[in-house]
Design brief:
The structure is a homohexamer of 290-residue chains. With 290 residues, the first copy, chain A, is mostly helical. Chain A contains 10 helices and 3 strands. Chain A is extended.
């Protein structure tokens, strides 16, 4: 279970409020690269963890940390919205910048939230929990977590570049540092478990003898003329030993290994057009007549 | 641009059609671990690639390969639906297995598709493209791709265990092999670029001097009593050199570094309740009177 | 504005309630082929109609009719849910059919709605209004409406086949008849306006001289070997005069008319990996050195 | 910021695991009546609170409590999934109950989560954050919270009836008690602020002199024949003093107060069909000729 | 069933068309606080009503009224879009206000709708029917309806403040008045049924003896240090008799009542990593060795 | 299976990059009128085709062509984003046009994609696959395809009008031409199968004797006063022979053919309020007493 402290994880200060930057910050709250996502992802991984117990503990600590990050960003959005235009008349009367702010801000920041953060991204699309990855396979989950933190840090760096508000830059410098660590942390679990050599392919518990090993380490090219693009030859993924040490990379210009599929005509209850059934009869006739 | 061959990438055969297994296979088509997702993800990464050109080429080949995987799975679903119950009367008249099939299949396989695959997951939720990760940062994108293939292979292995149809097991053994390679392939790009040592933190183009480095390699614990769970001590992510070789892991029992946030009262146009404004006035009075 | 009568458009009777059929009926309420969709689609087309006034009138009548169809189906769902299992204990104690009903029904019919209809499809996915087509172009909108009624009637026919309840068959025979008329009705508008000869291509107000007419009536084939599938030759869409009488159908084996795209490297603020920029430098060097 | 304790808020025990009940419990996690929703709703209300400070404090305490409820339910789902069928062969070999379980369980519990909870509802639809109400108006928000707890308690009671597992009933008896309190709590805030007499209409800060007061306390009937249904006469909402004491309820048989709307024809750039413009010309002609 | 009149419920007039205000008005159509939502919510509550019959009648009248409100708003949007920029060239040639309008309007108002309303919110997100609350419990539903009208009136008041168009203010003054009544109306039903004293907790048909009454009227605090925030003491919800008169409010500083959860390891078919199973073996060994 | 060529289907050139036009182009990628939709729709129709084989072939060719259209548009978006503002400081320092661009562009183009296309519409809403129509009925599917191309061409024409970039106009003139052909192509299939006379009503395989033919060709009016709007009389859809030649159009002023619905009270496990059950008791009493 959980506890709170009414103070913030790290100071949040806005020197020059900007409703447009408020809209951008929403991506770090409700975007797929954002904090609601990692928070729920780590929680669901922890709550579904079937061992080893250590990783449940690890996940719980960080999931809990992330709630505080959402809180920081929500505070930052609310502060950026102070002074936002709330009347078209005011906007028109003032300079173009106010009018542009009115057009460029998320209208729901005023209309729906009364000048506060919402669990949506910077296009106003609500976060949906299909983005919470928790597969029960620790290597897959750690890769998903590292991905989330990589896209998260990229987003935070772009936000850092976009703003010239010193308070916001300070807050982001903290969040960027935490994203650095979280990338390190999740990938270190894979390292702790033996690295890619032991952990790949995910899941490593499925016997590779059951997969069609002929194609397990072959890079398929799909060029229409059967050629292999020159710059792909001699790559780490087309030659030499595989990362898991269990195979040799090769190149396979792709071609059909199967046949044209044949589906039986549907039952009459599915009500295709009559002509689709007639077509069938014609085919049957043809088959008989030869 | 693109071309087709009417033959399948690999043979698809169903020995014992099962509408319930058809429903399960949908996860590999329209699920977040599925083939529509990787197909579109690799395409959008390729189409947005701003260099090096080599990686656009690499992505295009594999994106194109993935269309053929969706096609295989769609064919497998259609074949599994042949003979599915299309009348409650029939179902009731037959044995319980038919009735259970009627209750357990996706009703839209009959009602909406006339016994064919749909771009939805095994719960019938349509795939939505928010799951397409293409950030323009190659390390982040390669991690996202490896994640997609890790969850994809885990899904394929679970489907393999669920079925006892030899045709389906054969098809899955091919797809599992391709997922093995694709994991190898995307992670090999990171390796080719110098491995985690060079590529972390993502993005590696943001100067770490601008992040709050004091917290860049610290594992934050959130235990209510300030303790550090014993099993987390001495972990790869709490001690020793970081994966990128740029820091030393440490442990930081978390505490508030910031203050309680103070938001200004909203403008009257936002129409909070009058009492919220009165509350404010009271507070101001109190501050004056002491 | 609008009025109601508390009686139903047409009698709704359920002889043998079935929670599984209740789930299936949901597709006709909240599915993309369902009645909420056509109701809102016709309303939004009417409300946005910028002339001729006649079509606003026509649309309003039918939109209003459709509310009554949703009502009929919602009533049918509620009646089918009477007697549904509401306790696992009861289900287990009774025969397998009850248990199968429990597994096969939409659990939210009990949990969320207390045994009533919901605005969701038969997989429980809520209807979302992105499916409301109202483009302001009457020919496009009439085609969209005819499509909606074609998929709607196909759905209703499949539901008719699925049930053996005489009450339900009677209700569906009415709804199927209305779908017949609505198909006739929307397509008759196109006929009234001169048929496909006048109305195609949609929009017919864009001067065809501005489109690349060389490709306006050519069927593009995409076969990898440049061949044209034999069964496509001599088709209505590959030879002879086009439907709008403005061109001749032909076949064009597709090939790239454009070049390989070249995107400029992104700005540093977008934070690709450093190696992506280095790659660029390398290319520049190469270009200089030759 | 936030802290965790690895113990649960209240004991979670499952005596007879049931994958079908696991699916039902999902509604209490990721359904609109569920715990993720209230947790995020209370957090966003707190984080956006612009005073009085007291209510931020109140909301934070309860939001934090709710995380522990999600955790309890996620644990309950995971325990109910132990022993779930993971192979169709096993299911077929065993009795019908196992087969029914296979058809009735959420397939993604196995395929996507490896037998753990997911942030989805009992139909497998992911929670999306559009359901988080935080308007900045405390009376509106308290009503929204009371609604959430009312639907939440109704759901919990239905789950209680559905199961015969004593462990689950015990857990639910705790959650039901908490929903009781939370209803009391949010409505008590309205009471504390003067009750409906002071707080209605929401927002009470908009001067009623600016609304069209003629229609502010009139119940509009929409009967096609202009009648007023007999059972509605003499109701609390059709006669006597209004709840806010500021008006008298009355009945108004509805009729159009406005005219037929007239929209100007669209600009040519919007590309309606030519005939739509011709229609316009005809109308203009008619207006001229009379 | 239903009928229409081609005239509007109330006059809609726009003096100074504004595509940015058109975008804002969309929130009142397709937003969660908007009219599509209440219209469908009241209809589904009516159509699923299992008594008393009076409330079906009441709901039908108001649901029907709401269609006319959507119509008014859709008309207002269409009128506000007249004269909107439909060419970037025009926009650039004119003053900055036109250019700002182009950037600030919803591009789909032109691109998708040809200058008409759409069933989306002011961020362009389509309305989805998960927001339709109809639980079959009348007290819960009335609270949901009052909530919808409270957020709806707050939205309408904010729109009123945002615009300086007299026609729009007139239209909004009517809608605001109707929202006043609808709040009164739904809460009056609760009053009619005995008020909160009789109706709480919702559902009042679940015997409170079955809930864990020890926690039914206790406000849980979650402060990390176990303290109770001073401003929460002595509140209506922490002391005195509960609203339903069935308990006494108290304060309970929260603490874990349960234990650390223990989930069994997953079956091999779920394919966690091998190391997760090894972890298990280790634990088993440990248990044996002691 | 499938192949690629790294060259584009048709040249893509942008003379004057515009991030606002980039946002608009997104509608043609991820909008419901866009290319992802038609691409997947034609693929799923092909993959589920149960005959005649000819139509599978036809669909595959065009589905494959459409991938190349998405690619062209994605390239156009990326080129339009070159030079987009990536810092608020730059924007403020420059003229108003840059600031308007910052407010008017999709912020995720920079924040999430690093200046590249995304599979979303021009409001930033991700494409979701519920828009993929593939019913297994060829006439219904061809209508759906013609609809998609009609809305697609309307969108492309509007984009053509919006831009004054010659490169973009050239690209659009190609896409518009292809949309012309695709409309011709899908409708020609209906023609090939006998035209509307043979193909209507869809599905034509359901015996019309089973529908309630009394209402199969009647236009229902819903006017509150029972009148028929004058401009609807004498229309193609109210008089004369129906399009399928199987009936005569007529007008039916709508009226209730059914009764007021009566739903049984819910079971106690559904937990309506006690008063709802009391209502029931009252009704039972009344029935007894008479």
């Amino acid at each position: 279970m959980y506890y709170c402290d009414s103070r913030l994880q790290y100071p949040v200060r806005v020197d020059k409020p900007s409703p447009i930057f408020a809209k951008m910050l929403q991506q770090a709250i409700g975007g797929i690269e954002g904090e609601i996502r990692v928070c729920l992802q780590y929680f669901f991984q922890a709550w579904g963890s079937r061992g080893p117990k250590k990783y449940r503990d690890m996940l719980l600590q960080t999931a809990t940390e992330e709630i505080g990050h959402i809180e920081m960003l929500a505070t930052a959005v609310a502060l950026n919205l102070e002074g936002a235009p709330v009347s078209m008349q005011d906007a028109a009367a003032k300079d173009g910048a106010v009018y542009a702010a009115l057009g460029g801000m998320d209208p729901r920041h005023f209309l729906s939230a009364g000048l506060a953060a919402m669990p949506v991204n910077s296009d106003g699309v609500p976060f949906d929990c299909s983005h919470v990855y928790a597969s029960g396979n620790i290597a897959g989950d750690m890769l998903a977590n590292a991905t989330a933190e990589a896209t998260g840090r990229t987003l935070a760096c772009r936000l850092y570049e976009m703003t010239d508000d010193l308070g916001m830059k300070d807050m982001l410098s903290f969040l960027i540092a935490r994203d650095t660590m979280h990338q390190q942390q999740w990938l270190a679990v894979i390292e702790e478990l033996g690295g890619f050599r032991e952990q790949l392919p995910v899941p490593n518990s499925f016997p590779q003898s059951k997969e069609l090993q002929e194609y397990s380490y072959a890079y398929f090219t799909s060029q229409v003329d059967g050629s292999v693009p020159a710059d792909l030859q001699g790559s780490r993924f087309t030659e030499g030993s595989s990362l898991d040490g269990k195979g040799q990379y090769s190149i396979f210009p792709n071609r059909p290994l199967g046949q044209e599929p044949k589906l039986a005509p549907g039952p009459k209850e599915a009500h295709a057009q009559t002509e689709q059934e007639i077509g069938l009869i014609a085919k049957v006739k043809q088959a008989i007549v030869g």
